[in-house]
Task: structure prediction
Amino acid sequence: MDTNRMKVRSLLLLVGSLAAGIVGQGQSPAAPETHPASPSIGETATNPVANPGAVVVLGRARFTVLTPQLIRMEWAEDGKFEDHASLVFLNRNLPVPKFSKELSTDGHALTITTTDLTLAYTPSADGSFTAEDLSLSLQVDGKETIWHPGMADTENLKGTTRTLDGALGSKTAQEGIEPGLVSRSGWAVVDDSSRPLFDSSDFRFLQGEKSPWPWAMERPAGKRQDLYFFGYGHDYRQALGDYVRVAGRIPLPPRFAFGAWWSRFWAYSDQEILDIVHGFHENDTPLDVFVIDMDWHLTQGELQAAGRVDQSHGLLGWTGYTWDKGLFPDPPAFLDKLHAEGLKTSLNLHPASGVQPWEEAYPAMARAMGVDPATQKYIPFDITDKKYATNYMDILHHPLEKEGIDFWWLDWQSGPTTNMPGVTATWWLNYVHFTDQQREGKRPLLFHRWGGLGNHRYQIGFSGDVISVWPSLAFQPWFTATAANVGYAYWSHDIGGHLPGSVDPELYTRWVQFGAFSPILRTHTTKNPDSERRPWAYPEPYSAALRSAFQLRYALQPYLYTEGHRTYENGVAFVHPLYYDWPEADEAYTSQNEYMFGDQIMVAPVVTPSDKTSGLATESIWLPKGEWIEWPTGTHFTGPIKVDRSFSINQVPIYLKAGSIVPMQPPMLYTGEKPVDPLIVNVWPLEPGSHSSYSVYEDSGEAEQYQKGVFTNIPIQAAQMGDTLKVEIGPVQGHFTGMLRRRGYELRLPADWPPASVTVNGVPLRQATKSKTGWHYDGNTLTTFVPVASVSVASKVTIEVRRASGMTARRTELNDFPGQMARLSEVYQAMRDTSPAGDATDVVIDAYQTGNRISYHPESAAAEIAHFHEVLPKAQASVSQMNATFDAHVEEKIRLYSPQRWIPGGLDVPALKKSRTTAMRRAAKLMEDTGK
Result:
């Protein structure tokens, strides 16, 4: 319907008419709803029956105004409307927003108007929704947009898909991605017409209470339409916040899930697994989860040898529930050992073949399903049969959980359909496993594929068997962030790729670095002896970079867990696209390798190989409007701006908003190894006169108590007043059993001048070299460290850091200094590697040692920085000159000075010449990049 026709129609309408079969109370006197996304304490979100005041009925159509931007539209041929929860929409009982309804004088045309939408409906024939009969209009970018049924959404921003199996980059992977709930067109429509329903809305077990198990049922027969119109313009955050209000919230995983996971398709023995765990600990590489793939149970080899046949005609040995006692002689004792090492364990499942007669649990399962075990007839897999599902959990899974299995990896092998029309096995397996844990009073965790809309309630997601190539890595940042458009916040990828498994060190390192800044860090590979995923097994510098990525992931766990809780509260996945925050910038849509990682951090992982000479990888990065600081280099940028930046193997492109506050924790080998004490608080430079804040979330980790408000928040405030920074921490808000009553803190202030003085709660703090009783300064990263002794969490800690007069205004002198120190360290080492043909020049050593000298004497920082700016061009010139003349004397110096000359036949001049020349070229290229 065009705009003129709508205007004509509006002239024929009479405001407030309730004639001709209109039912409802749309002229609510209530004030406009404020639309809070956060749940109220104890919110169950399980009432599918809308508030009568939100409902308008005209003939065989019913409209429910859920929010000012979200309207449910139903038509039923029999005039009977649906109030059961569907598999997606659980809760329609929201506060009634302010809206009006108008009926034409002939009682045949209806208009519903909210603050954001205008719905016009003129039923014809049977009254079903058609492009001629129904329209909704809204303002998008100041222009009117009109939607009709059947209209294609060509600007939909996509959602996610079940699997990336076999995907090779974006070209093959994007084809199957489902529509999202947000669109640049300003609207999105969810067609719920054929989606099955729940037979009960009693979801009390969501609060940890044992109750009946709501089950899927078909919709009533007959023609019907059930549409949800999301008309949020470009307010994507609000759209997703309201979505979780009606479709259920995104649960907060257990804290350990934010740690590192190990998995591999390999027939491990218990001893091999424990050796790997010990390797992690011995190499200071943290680990929380060991995922054991399918060979934990009897598989094809043993079963074929015994003459077994899969009666379901599935793949022999893929489904299994009986331990392989050759590999695991005593599973409970083995699992006790793993738990003693601080690890959680998951077992891989392929449930499609049901329960075969060789399973230890077969007799009990057969009897429970009414089958005589003596018949040796297998029990078919039928997850939508409630009796089967109940026995499936009680007989097959709960005993293994009692032995020590913490959660399950449901590796897809269950077919696209079930005996319940409209319900896929993937969707319903997710529901059964996740809610079974809820009914058991646990904090649920599931590892499985995306089953479709509504599966945001049952995470973590397994993205499938990707190919181990650069294009696969390059696609995953966009894919992971885009899943936020359907509320799917926790994709777990095969870090390093699955097939063929063997991967070069640089690609694996970059993949792990991306994994450290993705929802779940889980390495994986296939049954290939050449596949290696142990970080310490790689040569340097990759091994150190890999270990650093794992350690940084754990250091950030307080931030990760806080952002995970924010995801639960507001419906916006903490890994999400840039256009949520900058919706009117085209670059926010086209910069597909970039994403927000929580509220404070933007990440643009390296997804391309490096230059072979310098070892630097170059990425083109767009920074949105605002002030940004590049974490690894301390470089300040004012956006919007697009820049080309180069990164060595140990650098990850991470950008923080000016004034960002990021909580961290001390080193740990696994989650909960020790209390988070001290809590580390990083505050990036603030502009004078500005302030920032953050609140650190903590809970007991018990069940789903966080949904009842059983948690704490630690408020942190920072304000820059001239040359003085004031940081306030606490007092803690809230309570949970086991919370720390006292705790220390460590304030870190990166990329800024050293203090002239520091006070903690008004008491001066002396300077000391890396002491727990005084502040110290690292000159290479320009970071001030301020320790705070243990105090009651009920008290406020106030830290004031005063810098010398005028120094805050001179921050531009520090720009990129940490990055230049890092690059000079690489230059210095490369030049040392030219020996005996060359060495680091005195002027290079002078520049390289600047940060170190500042660490010893922070009071000399201004003079040292000024000297550095003078000496750096000289150092660059000296390296350039040395490189230009290197080839002329390299062979001569090798013959004269190489230690190998003392060994008869040990002097391989061509090999030494090649390695020394390579080091010289690397030094020259690195020096060219220094200061860019």
